[in-house]
Design goal:
alpha/beta; eight-stranded parallel β-sheet; binds zinc ion
């Protein structure tokens, strides 16, 4: 299992990076990205500190750990600048907090995240066809999420992605230990999103591609 969207105490998660990684290892994960919520106020602080520990955790717990970020509620016109800054600071995975159906995320965030060339557009909700086509063209992965609330958009995201050729990844958006992946959660999420079990391999391969 690979999960490229998780949170720690560095934003609104419940666990320290060390505990999160140790628990994901115990749950059978092969790789995890730590992607705490960031805007311009904390990007440098968070990425620098997560990077401080990823190498130790990777080698001691035998699981690939990537320092990333989730650019969150940054006004759309500034998203490109935030994504560039995150990369400059060494983020290995840059997620943008998309237009979830259960939050007042600014309209235009999905498009700005895709145009900025983020790696993953998280919970893009009722994303437009035009933006799905753009994501396919820009190689931005669209997220299918196991997270309550956000997952209301899964069926829409999956059907447009499959039809229009955009690539998807499966993430948990973990904030607490009980959010971590298990087989039941994966199967339930795929089923409610209208994605066949066979397609999971393609999604896992997509995640693996992002790890390189
Ligand atoms: Zn988010
Ligand atoms: Zn998140």
């Amino acid at each position: 299992m690979i999960d490229l969207h998780t949170h720690t105490l560095f934003s609104d998660g419940a666990l320290l990076p060390s505990e999160l990684v140790c628990r994901t290892k115990a749950a059978g994960y092969e790789a995890i990205a730590i992607t705490d919520h960031c805007d311009f106020s904390n990007l440098d602080f968070v990425i620098k500190r997560i990077k401080r520990i990823t190498k130790i955790l990777s080698s001691e717990y035998g699981i690939k750990v990537i320092a990333g970020t989730e650019i969150t509620y940054v006004p759309p016109v500034y998203i490109s600048k935030a994504v560039s800054l995150a990369r400059k600071l060494g983020a290995g995975i840059v997620v943008v907090h998309g237009e979830s159906p259960v939050e007042p995320v600014p309209i235009g965030t999905n498009k700005a995240g895709i145009l900025a060339g983020c790696d993953i557009l998280a919970h893009p909700g009722f994303i437009t066809e035009e933006d799905v086509i753009l994501a396919a063209k820009k190689n931005v992965y669209l997220e299918i999420t196991t997270r309550r609330g956000h997952k209301k958009g899964n069926l829409h995201v999956a059907s447009l992605s499959l039809r229009l050729g955009a690539s998807m990844v499966l993430n948990t958006d973990t904030h607490e230990p009980e959010d971590l992946l298990d087989l039941k959660k994966i199967n339930d999420t795929l089923k409610s999103a209208g994605i066949s079990k066979d397609y999971l391999k393609t999604m896992t391969d997509n995640s693996r591609r992002l790890l390189r």
